[in-house]
Design a protein that fits this description.
With about 425 residues, the chain is mostly helical. It has one domain. The protein is about 85% helix and about 0% strand. It is built from 14 helices and no strands. Helix 1 packs across helix 3, helix 1 crosses helix 9 and helix 8 packs parallel to helix 13. The longest helix is centred in the N-terminal third of the chain and has 52 residues. About 50% of the residues are buried. The model has no long low-confidence stretch (mean pLDDT about 80). Keywords: Cell membrane, Membrane, Transmembrane, Transmembrane helix.
Length: about 425
């Protein structure tokens, strides 16, 4: 299967996930305005953070090693048993910590202790979310793109139904609660689909400790957690800075534009995750790796440039459709954000080489450096240019990240 065909399946799944996310955003925008969208962003960052920690940050590792070991049943069995053990232990630990800190988290992120029970619900849900991520990673590792798309489409349909019911009943609280319940309900689709797959074996449910495989997962976990942990933490810090300096309404404008960006980029990042990670992990010849990277640039860069250009031209309509007329001032932020999106995708194509080849120390160091650099640029450029400076910080940071990844890729592939 090539990247074009993988993209067709992933596009259907991504469209469903995107629709589910936009339904929630639209509902929150309609009854809570820009300030509510800002708080929605905070809660979604917390969900992303806990989901990665609760799963032990090993989803990418499972994809990589399943792709490598799928022709070696003994090693595959050891890997999956160790991965399940790792994920279950991590989810129990993270869930307990979130329960203990539910009140401080509610006050810190949402400025309201009344959301404490929502945080508790999210904490309890971590076990189910970790199991779901394990199933999806195994399916992805076998490059079963059609089955993966089916789970995501049906799971997203359930999420939309839950979001409509709970948000109309409980308003903002219900919309946030629906995000949690909707994720867990994906198991109702994922479990039967996984059990009916041709590669499923009952032993895949056996969780046990394996020193060698756990060490491999832990090394990969460090890379994944550094990336997935830093991103929501930095975004939380950026929102706190913008809300403190300009108010939650202005922070909501920034959040609205970044949500549009995240939404359409899902189509491309899903293709990268579904196709490139297992493909690069299973490819060992450097000439073949270079060909895969060139193919990625030929396919993905024109696609992201076309999508970014279309959204820029239709930005007024997009803002009114997805949010409301109250978000009109956000239109001034689209230009630098969309330019940054193009550079971001170019960077991702190259950075997945570090993930696929387990360049742990280099990957972790780069994630830390560029996360801190982004935060520093936000403070510097917002002081100089106002709210739009936060968006320019995003673009400048990814331009520097692209240059770094280009150097790493050229050295690894032996280019002069």
């Amino acid at each position: 299967m090539n990247i074009a065909r993988a993209s067709l399946y992933s596009s259907a799944a991504t469209a469903a996930r995107l629709l589910a996310a936009l339904v929630v955003v639209k509902l929150v925008a309609s009854f809570a305005g820009p300030a509510g969208v800002g708080k929605l962003g905070q809660f979604m960052s917390l969900m992303s953070l806990l989901a990665v920690l609760a799963g032990g940050g090993i989803s990418a590792a499972v994809v990589k090693y399943v792709a490598e070991y799928r022709e070696d049943p003994a090693r595959l069995s050891r890997l999956l048993a160790s991965a399940l053990w790792y994920a279950l232990c991590a989810s129990c630990l993270v869930g307990c910590l979130a329960l203990l800190w539910s009140r401080p988290l509610a006050l810190w992120l949402l400025d309201d202790a009344g959301y404490q029970n929502l945080i508790r619900t999210l904490a309890v849900a971590q076990l189910g979310i970790a199991l779901l991520n394990y199933l999806l990673a195994v399916i992805n590792g076998f490059m079963d793109v059609r089955r993966l798309a089916l789970v995501q489409v049906l799971g997203s349909a359930l999420s939309i139904a839950v979001a409509l019911v709970l948000s109309l009943w409980l308003r903002l609280y219900g919309a946030l609660l629906a995000l949690v319940i909707g994720q867990v309900l994906w198991l109702a689709v994922g479990l039967p689909a996984f059990r009916r797959s041709p590669y499923f074996r009952p032993g895949m449910w056996r969780a046990r400790f394996d020193r060698e495989m756990t060490a491999r997962l832990a090394a990969f976990s460090l890379m994944t957690i550094s990336s997935a942990l830093l991103s929501p933490l930095v975004n939380i810090a950026v929102r706190e800075h913008l809300a403190g300096r300009y108010g939650w309404v202005q922070a909501g404008y920034w959040q609205a534009v970044t949500r549009v960006s995240d939404a359409y980029l899902l189509f491309l990042t899903a293709a990268i995750n579904i196709y490139y990670l297992p493909k690069l992990a299973a490819t060992h010849e450097r000439d073949a790796l270079a060909r895969e990277l060139r193919q990625g640039f030929r396919f993905l860069l024109p696609a992201v440039a076309a999508l970014a250009g279309a959204i820029y031209l239709a930005r007024d309509w997009v803002t009114r459709l997805l949010f409301s007329r109250d978000f009109a001032l956000a239109n001034a932020l689209y230009g630098p954000q969309l330019l940054g999106d193009v550079i971001k995708i170019a960077s991702f194509v190259l950075s997945y080489l570090m993930l696929a080849k387990a360049m742990t120390r280099l990957f972790v160091a780069s994630e830390c450096v560029f996360a801190l650099l982004y935060l520093a640029l936000v403070y510097l450029l917002t002081a100089r240019f106002g709210l739009v400076g936060a968006v320019w910080a995003f673009t400048v940071n990814y331009a520097l990240y692209f240059a770094f990844n280009l150097v790493v890729a050229r050295r690894y592939l032996g280019a002069s």
